[in-house]
Amino acid sequence: MKKQAVKLEDVAAVAGVSKTTVSRVLNHRGYLSQGTIDKVHQAMQELHYRPNVIARQLFQQKTNLVGLVFPTVDNPFFAQLEAQLDQELYRQGYRVLMGNSQNNPEREEAYLRQLLNGQVDGLIVGAHNEGIEQYRDTQLPIVSIERWVSKDIPVVAADNYAGGRMATQRLLDDGCQHIIHTNYPHGLPSPNLERRRAYEELMQARHRPAITYEVNFDSTDEEKRAIFNRLFTEHPEVDGVFADNDTNASLIIQVARKRGRHIPHDLKVVGFDGANMTRTLLPELTTIQQPIDEMAKRAVELLQKRIVGEQATGSVQLPVKLIDGGTA
Amino acid sequence: MKKQAVKLEDVAAVAGVSKTTVSRVLNHRGYLSQGTIDKVHQAMQELHYRPNVIARQLFQQKTNLVGLVFPTVDNPFFAQLEAQLDQELYRQGYRVLMGNSQNNPEREEAYLRQLLNGQVDGLIVGAHNEGIEQYRDTQLPIVSIERWVSKDIPVVAADNYAGGRMATQRLLDDGCQHIIHTNYPHGLPSPNLERRRAYEELMQARHRPAITYEVNFDSTDEEKRAIFNRLFTEHPEVDGVFADNDTNASLIIQVARKRGRHIPHDLKVVGFDGANMTRTLLPELTTIQQPIDEMAKRAVELLQKRIVGEQATGSVQLPVKLIDGGTA
DNA sequence: CTGAAAGCGCTAACAT
DNA sequence: ATGTTAGCGCTTTCAG
């Protein structure tokens, strides 16, 4: 425990005024004579004074920090989302405390335990773990993105169902007869399942089998490639794939090409997400684009309302858009 | 300023002991009778007590937070780097405060102003702005990644010079006669320039012109595409490109293909970075891979040393690796 | 084994 | 226009 740092008291001493006055100068509050202001400023300069943020936070019971609890930032969707959240929060005067759970429930709990203890003014969550009770036990303002957490926590999500329909419909319109879908394993409480539901409903309406290959979010690329290879082996007739995210779509295309398939001639592929980075690196991918920036914006708006005490409940569903790449 | 939260004092009251005792139970310090411990625990449960992190931080003059100051997280290199830094810092008991400057000096300064005020225990920086003085003015432990900040701040970087040579050499070995390079505009104090220097030296040794097209980090994809189109118009003879990062490499390939070039037949391209996300989405890109995870690890080690007061100076340079994709 | 009291650095009533 | 004082919630000497 060090304590050499110059503090408000030292400035006061040098300037020959009281701590209150220095505090007032610092916060532009109350009436000050210009002379005093100058003296104080000079003393601050002289001492290289830096107000201690923590002390202020303790007093104000406010940290101007918002926690972001997501699986990882090393992924096109989350990278853009977190960047945008950071951007929007910055505007509102908040800084961001990162809490990437790596899909590890222990880590998610560890973050929560700490964050809920007055460390942040609010939380935006989008991690994929289940059954974490702590979210219920708190008064902290929370908003969720693309994840159902508990019923009093508002969710901001894209219209996943519509997206699922668009993707499937596009493949059907393209004349695909055997369309396969990829998604998470059942059981994760994610609006992602709506993509699957839409696919299944549409296939059923056409009296066609709905086949979903399940892929864990945190499998390695190699494991995913293995699954997709299996897909083509088990279903050589497949002529259309609706992948639940662009990374999987990309891997499927790679695997298919290695197996001699030509895209879109032999096989059509539609992805999901349409994040900046994927659009830059893989513009030829046809995909359902989520309005990621808008989602971030809306989440921050909701959170801000909750923080100032307004009753922001209910969820927000944002429209998606089909981006024509060339793979479908 | 709210103050309903249950605090240590409330727990003490319910348990019928003093604040000191509760604090001791909380921190497993000193001698306590089992009876007291149980009573206190029960009171905590009953009241849903959560120790206030900020108060503890104020007392201890330690936040267990590390600030990350980088341009953005929405980019394959920085996404992986920040994810990995988060990972390593988590291990050491630190949480991460994000400070993405968006290449905006004002924002970088705003972050610094705040972070240097006791908000974090240390800083890892890699933003690209110049001339920010505040880094010098502080006692805070700082480590930099791929950026020269000031002479007492250690830098962790890849061996950019070797990387630049490898890339250029590879293109020469491939038989390229007209190799063009892309890089940042001159003036940014980045080890990135070493890539350019290596390219220029090697070209000069072969008595070939060294031509560098300058591309701003934060230009839009469209602006970048325009520059690369210009590149092909002004230098139709080009048969090899060494891009200073994989995103540019990808854009160059796209532009070239649109102009009817076949890769690698008509044009060979080598990128730089080799981040996970690029490897997943664009495995066919030949690139110089930086050891991103290792860089994160070393940076955290250095920072940790500085935080505990060891004299960690000097810089770390890590080897790079050529990844054979197929574009060169 | 436990408690009283001081203090981390700052702010805001409430004086004057 | 400025100062005095109390206190944000916690930890830790120092006493007992």
TrEMBL record, chains A, B:
Keyword Glycoprotein recorded: no
InterPro entries: HTH_LacI, LacI/GalR-like_sensor, Lambda_DNA-bd_dom_sf, Peripla_BP_I
Keywords: DNA-binding, Repressor, Transcription, Transcription regulation
Keyword DNA-binding appears in the UniProt entry: yes
PROSITE patterns in alphabetical order: HTH_LACI_1, HTH_LACI_2
A GO molecular function held by the record: DNA-binding transcription factor activity
Highest rank taxon of the organism: Bacteria
Pfam families to which the protein is assigned, alphabetical: LacI (PF00356), Peripla_BP_3 (PF13377)
Residue ranges occupied by any HTH lacI-type domain in the UniProt entry: 6-60
The protein's name in its UniProt record: Sugar-binding domain protein
